[in-house]
Amino acid sequence: MDMRFDMAQNAAFPTPARICGSQCCNACVVRDRAICADLTEGDRGALSRLGRRVTLQAGQTVMWEGDDSMVVANVIEGTLKLATSTGDGREQIVGVVYASDFIGRPFGARTPHSVTALTDARLCLFPRGCFDGFAMRHGELQHRLLQRTLDDLDRTRAWMLLLGRKSAREKVATFLLDMSRRLKADGDGVIALPLSRQQIADVLGITIETVSRQMTEMKRDGIIDLVGRRGVRLINIAALETLSETV
Amino acid sequence: MDMRFDMAQNAAFPTPARICGSQCCNACVVRDRAICADLTEGDRGALSRLGRRVTLQAGQTVMWEGDDSMVVANVIEGTLKLATSTGDGREQIVGVVYASDFIGRPFGARTPHSVTALTDARLCLFPRGCFDGFAMRHGELQHRLLQRTLDDLDRTRAWMLLLGRKSAREKVATFLLDMSRRLKADGDGVIALPLSRQQIADVLGITIETVSRQMTEMKRDGIIDLVGRRGVRLINIAALETLSETV
DNA sequence: CGCCGATTTGATATACATCAACCGCAGTGG
DNA sequence: CCACTGCGGTTGATGTATATCAAATCGGCG
Questions:
Q1: Residue B38 gets which letter from DSSP?
Q2: In sequence order, what are the residues at sequence separation of 6 or more whose Cβ sits closer than 8 angstroms to the Cβ of residue B114?
Q3: Among B163, B190, B222, which residue terminates a domain?
Q4: B52-70, pLDDT tens digit by residue?
C-alpha cells in the first residue's frame, strides 16, 4: 500500500485543540453530527471511555473483508473507502465515508467489506462487543444508528442504478455532482477530489482509461475544467445534471 | 400492469387460517420472523391495531419512487420488487423482498424506490407516522429494524460488486445461486423463479437477451436445466460457484 | 533537472447491446 | 377439438461502448 496524496485533504480541521486530551468529547469536531450526538454528556463520556482515538495514514486498512467484526468507529477526520473484491482481484468501492460517519459492522459477526483510509484520518474506535452492549442500553444511540443506516441504504440503492444502468458518461457526471455536494470548493471553485482516477473507476464500475477519457472529453466540451491531478472545477452544472440523467 | 404467473408461487401458504379475523397476530405466519417478533403479546396487539392487512395482486405497485413516505409494511406472503429508474425509463431492481421482510421508509420523508408485487401478496400495512411513533417507544422493535437494515445494507453492497465488476456469465451464476438459497426447490430439484427474464435482467443490470443466452449456454454446458418458463434445476452447483467468482 | 508513478492518449479487441425474426405455449373463441 | 392470437422467450445478425494492451506525456518531488 503506497498511496501518495498531493493535496492537503485535511485543511478543514487544522489540528483540533486537544484541550482535555485525546479522550475528551467536549472538543470533538464531529460531536453533534456523529451518532453520539443525542447522548447526554454523562453517557457520551461513558461511551468515550469504552473506545480510543486512533490515527491512520493514507492507505492504511482498518478492517478487512470477511474478517470477524471486532471494532466499529466514528470517523473524526479524513476520508475512507469501503470496498469488496472478487477472487481474482477486481475491486468495487461500495462506499466513501467522511468525517462524522460511522464505520464497521455492529450486531454482526463479520465485516462484509474492507475499510481503508484514502487520506490521513482519525477515528474514535470501539471494540464491537462493548459498543453493542452500550447501544443495547441506549435507545437514542440505536435510533441515530438506524437513521444513518437507512440513509446509507438509500444512497447505496441509488448507486445501484448507476452501476447497473448508466453509461460511462452518465456515471462520471453523477460522480462529479455527488462530489460537489459533499466537498467544499476552494475560492476558485475547484474541488479537490479525495480519490485517484483508479479509485474513481472502482467507484463507478469502469476502467481508469474510461474515466480519463470521459473527463477530458467533458473538459473539451467546456463542462468541467481539470486542474492538476486531483482538482476539478464544475463549469456547467446544468449540463452535468442533464447528463447524470436520473429524474 | 398485466403480468401473468404460470406457477403457483404461494403454495407454501395455503390460505392461512383466519381464526380470529385478519387483524390477529397470533395466527400470523411470519410472526416470529418479522420485526415484531420481539414484542410482548400486548405490544404486538397495540401495533397491530395501528395497521391493517391488505391484499395485492401481482403487478400492483404499493409505493412509488420519490413519493412522500406515507406507509410502511411487513410482508406476510408473496414476493415484491424494489426498483428505481432513470428519466428515460431504464429500470434497476434494487431489491427483492419475501415473506417476513419489511418494506417502506420509516423515519424519512421520501420513498426512494418503488415497491411492486411480483406475485399476489399480503401485507401488514402501517401509516408511517404511527409506526415511527410506536417504534420510538419500543426499543426492541427499533433494534430488530436496525438488524434487518444492516443486513440489507450488507447484501446490497455485495450486489454492487456484481453490478460493477462481474461479467454477464458471473452475474447469472450468482443470481441462480442466490435464488437457490432463498427459494425451496420442489421434489425434482426445480426452483420456480419469481422473476421473469426481463426482471432478472433488471436485477443484474444486463438485457433480457443476454440473460437468455447465458442461461441456454449454461444449459448446453450441463450446469443447469431449464423447465418451462419459470423453472430451473441447478445440476452442477460447484460449477456455478466457480463461475460466480466471489471469494 | 531528472525521475517515477499517475494520467492521458492511441490502436485494437470484445462483450454486450441493439435490432429483428422466430418459436412455442397458454388462453380464447369458433 | 383445433386453429388463432398474443406474449414471453429464444436465436441470429450486426453495431458499439467500453475493455484491453501499449506507449507517450505530465506533474510533483527529491
A1: G
A2: B61, B63, B64, B65, B82, B83, B84
A3: B163
A4: 999 999 999 999 999 999 9
Domain range holding B147? 35-163
Cβ contact, residue pair B92, A145, below 8 Å: no
For residue A147 the three cell numbers come to 437513521
* B244 neighbors B177 (Cβ within 8 angstroms): yes
Contacts of A149 in chain B (CB under 8 A): 146, 149-150, 153
Confidence of residue A2 (pLDDT cuts 50, 70, 90): very low
Same domain? B194 vs B135: no
d(CA B82, CA B67): 14
What is the per-residue pLDDT across B200-246, written as a single tens digit (0 to 9) for each? 999 999 999 999 999 999 999 999 999 999 999 999 999 999 999 76
A175 and A229 within one domain = yes
Of all nucleotides in the shown strands, which has a C1' nearest the CA of A216? C8
From A247, which residue of chain B is nearest by alpha-carbon distance? B87
Q: Could you say which nucleotides of strand D lie within 7 A of any protein CB atom?
A: 7-13, 17-22, 27-29
Tens of pLDDT, residue by residue over B108-117, are 999 999 999 9
Q: What's the CA B226/C1' D11 distance, rounded, in angstroms?
A: 16
Of the three residues B138, B163, B188, the one that is the final residue of a domain is: B163
pLDDT in tens, A170-185: 999 999 999 999 999 9
Whichever domain contains A180, its CATH number is: 1.10.10.10
Considering the domain architecture, whether residues B144 and B104 belong to the same structural domain is answered as yes
Give the number of domains in chain B.
Answer: 2
A168 touches strand C (CB under 7 A): no
Whether A107 and B246 lie within 8 Å, measured CB to CB: no
Residue A66: predicted pLDDT? 95
A130 within a domain of the structure (yes/no): yes
pLDDT, position A24 = 74
Instruction: For chain A, give the number of residues.
Output: 247
Instruction: Measure A91 CA to C4 C1' (Å).
Output: 25
pLDDT at A247: 56
Clarify whether residues B44 and B136 are in a common domain: yes
Which residue from B136, B145, B156 is facing A157, i.e. has the nearest CB?
Answer: B156
HEC string of B198-227 equals HHHHHHHCCCHHHHHHHHHHHHHCCCEEEE
**CATH code of residue B122:** 2.60.120.10
Starting at the edge strand found earlier in the chain, the sheet holding B114-117 runs B61-63, B114-117, B80-85, B91-97
Q: Is B202 in the same domain as B142?
A: no
Residue B208 Cβ < 7 Å to strand D? yes
Question: Do A245 and B86 make contact, defined as CB atoms within 8 angstroms?
Answer: yes
The beta-carbon neighbor of A246 closest among B87, B94, B154 is: B87
Whether residue A40 is found in the same domain as residue A154: yes
Please indicate whether, in this complex, the C-beta atoms of B86 and A158 are within 8 angstroms of each other. no
B6: nearest nucleotide, CA–C1' criterion = C26
